[in-house]
Write the structure tokens for this entry.
Amino acid sequence: MKKKIIYTLGTSTRSLREFFLLLRFYQISQVVDVRRFPQSKNFPHFNKKNLEKFFKKKKIKYFHLEKLGGYQKGGYLAYTKTREFKKALLYLIDLAKNKRTALFCAERFPWRCHRRFIAQALKKKSFKVLHILEKGKVWTN
């Protein structure tokens, strides 16, 4: 059976245009925001309300899954063992079944953030996870 692919991406200091061009390059039609707090004081174009409007115009589906967000009490690794995390992960998997999906947070490098733990959980569910670093450059762990 062929593994389903899911992408991850960090907003970091990117412009909205740069972020969108990466999504387009990888033919992403759906994004899942896995920030616990979907806002940015320094980069307001990545605030949830702004993204919802932007993605609607670009015909990219936008979802915010706060339950997969970072900054969990007791640490994220411990959180991955909770019922709440597992339920949110199944919802993400359901979303990603039929559309090319990228989950994203603010951290540019996946090895420095909670996306690596989500990726590990997805791999156990037979997903191949590709972390987008730049155009034409992905990292797998």
About this structure: The beta strands are 4-10, 30-33, 61-64, 101-105, 127-134, 137-139. The radius of gyration is 14 Å.
